[in-house]
Design brief:
The protein has one domain. 82% of the residues lie in helices and 0% in strands. The protein has seven helices and no strands. Keywords: Membrane, Transmembrane, Transmembrane helix.
Length: 193
Amino acid sequence: MQSLVELYANVAYIAVDVVLFISFVYLVFRVKETGIRVFYHRGYKLKSKRDHDFISWCFTLIVYTLFNYIDTIMTGLIISLDTDYLLRRKLFYLSKIFFFILLYVSLYALHVMRGCSFSMITRSAYCLGLIPITLYLIQLISRGYYDVTLITSENFRFMISLYATICCFIFVSFPVKSVYQRIKKANRRPQIS
């Protein structure tokens, strides 16, 4: 069972990197069309729900990616600390909780500063983020303070990998849906003969 969970976890994190890369490629092409001002210039009005959804998705993608890579570096640094293992556990789980809360605050601030409504993707990411926060909090209390394992490492890793997999589907859903709608719209145009 453990090797299967390890395989799934590795595949899930590779999938996250692939999805983020694909999403950034889509983001670059869309920014070439709309211009970069759409993100920061409040004078540029977001006219449609599609504009709001695009900006909201971009903010979510960028913040999630930045925090994901910063968190990876911080995790490596915390694990390599030469301190008591309980202190390391506490720092590890506290840093994970801190990064998720900081991610939430950053997303909220970006949406408010831009005057953009939250898309369904951002709301889904917000709700989905409660899963790892809850898991990290349980682990912080049980393993960090009481040195008791309530959630086995296989189950914990599986749940975090499942979260990463669902995030992949959430992040890739917007570009896929948008490209599909463009293709569908292009095929509907009447041909002049």
